[in-house]
Amino acid sequence: MAAESYRNTPNRNITVGEVRFAYRDLGPRTGTPVVLLNHLGATLDNFDPRVVDGLASKHRVVAVDNRGVGGSSGATPRDIAAMAHDAVAFIRAMGFEQVDLLGFSMGGFVAQQIALSEPALVRRLILTGTGPAGGAGMDKVTGVTVRAMIKGAMTFKDPKLYLFFTKTANGRRAGHEFLARLKERTADRDKPITSAAFGRQLTAIRRWAGQAPQDLSVITQPTLVANGDDDRMVPTENSRDLARRIAGAELVIYQDAGHGGIFQYHRPFVLAALEFLR
């Protein structure tokens, strides 16, 4: 029986070739599964439990660690295409003929690549806090991230507070609430990402930022694009660009919100996502 909430969903593993993928799986076993693809440096413990639980109230939801990250074995790929290949291998090993994808930040890069390379596998696409290959300002991700990590170390605060949220009172409050939610799970937590895996992910992001633009007009799946209006990691104009280039895409921009807009506005985001997936 599926667990009632993400905070107590057991860790599971599935082996694909030589790679053991760690994942969590909850929600009803009917309809199209929603596969969650996460951000730079993220493990299973970095998926917002309010977003996961909200989606799992109506859908089967599967969160997975990238290869070499958290509980997953192997060496983390240095490019997005290889990450997409891994995700496809995982999805097929789970026995899913078709899935809905929710990609946040780097996970959104991976989701786009899957939709382009394996279109029959994807029913619907949710792209959040993300942008296209070669997108505006995305070559600055490494610098922005490193500066936030240094600031976090100097202030004894999680760098996500600076990376994902605005500097306003609303943004800071939402950031602290989000970080508290990530600590709700106290048992059977995932392993933290290693510095080597983190470095490989940064390389993959730099390569994605330097790629030639892809033809996103060939993505025909219904697509929902969401972000905050002040994303400093993947500038918000990239979300607008995605919505322009993917035919019929819906665009939601949250006010006074940053990269983590879907976490700050988790209630309206979940409602919008559920309506979109329905």
Automatic annotation (TrEMBL):
InterPro entries: AB_hydrolase (IPR050471), AB_hydrolase_1 (IPR000073), AB_hydrolase_fold (IPR029058). Residues 33-263 form the AB hydrolase-1 domain. SUPFAM superfamilies: alpha/beta-Hydrolases (SSF53474). It comes from the Bacteria. This is Pimeloyl-ACP methyl ester carboxylesterase. It comes from Caulobacter rhizosphaerae.
